[in-house]
Amino acid sequence: VQLQESGPGLVKPSQTLSLTCTVSGGSITADYYYWNWIRQSPGKGLEWMGAIGGSGSTYYSPSLKSRTSISRDTSKNQFTLQLSSVTPEDTAVYYCAAGASMGDSPRDYNYWGQGTQVTVSS
């Protein structure tokens, strides 16, 4: 399974960050993995943001739930993260990852995208 993140590298404060993860070698409708978004801010550990399951059910971190939306396009085998009302504190490397569980540990995931840097700045 391969995952690849795409999206803008620079977002202005108060705008919505939107990233897409394109999956190959596996189907996002399969129920053996959760398809996750995780981020790592400078000097901090991994932060799980949310996930979408094979059935389309979504799961969100309580701390980000009010600003986060995850959706999918099954025809393109892609899933998308939207994070609204961003601030400079949302500057991070954003990863998509697949695994049988969800969490802040790298051990929760079997496959990772390479990560994409997103900077929030005016």
Please provide a written account of the structure.
The chain has about 120 residues and is an all-beta fold. About 0% of the residues lie in helices and about 50% in strands. The protein has no helices and 11 strands. The strands form 2 sheets. Strands 2, 4, 5, 6, 9, 10 and 11 form a 7-stranded mixed beta sheet that branches. It has a 4-stranded antiparallel beta sheet with strand order 1-3-8-7, with no helix packed on it. The termini are far apart.
Show the helix and strand layout.
Blueprint: E1 2-6, E2 10-11, E3 17-24, E4 34-40, E5 46-52, E6 58-60, E7 68-73, E8 78-83, E9 92-99, E10 111-112, E11 116-120
Parallel strand pairs: 2-11
Antiparallel strand pairs: 1-3, 3-8, 4-5, 4-9, 5-6, 7-8, 9-10, 9-11
Radius of gyration, whole Å: 13 Å
How many beta-strand elements? 11
**Overall average residue pLDDT:** 96
Helix and strand sequence: EEEEEEEEEEE
Q: Residue share in helices?
A: under 10%
Largest sheet features: 7 strands, mixed
What would you call the shape? globular
Global structural class: mainly beta
Terminal residue distance:
36 Å
Low-pLDDT sequence parts: none
Number of helices: 0
Strand content: over 45%
Chain oligomer state: single chain
Short characterization:
This protein is mainly β and 122 residues long. Helices cover 0% and strands 48% of the residues.
Descriptors:
122 residues; mainly beta; four-stranded antiparallel sheet
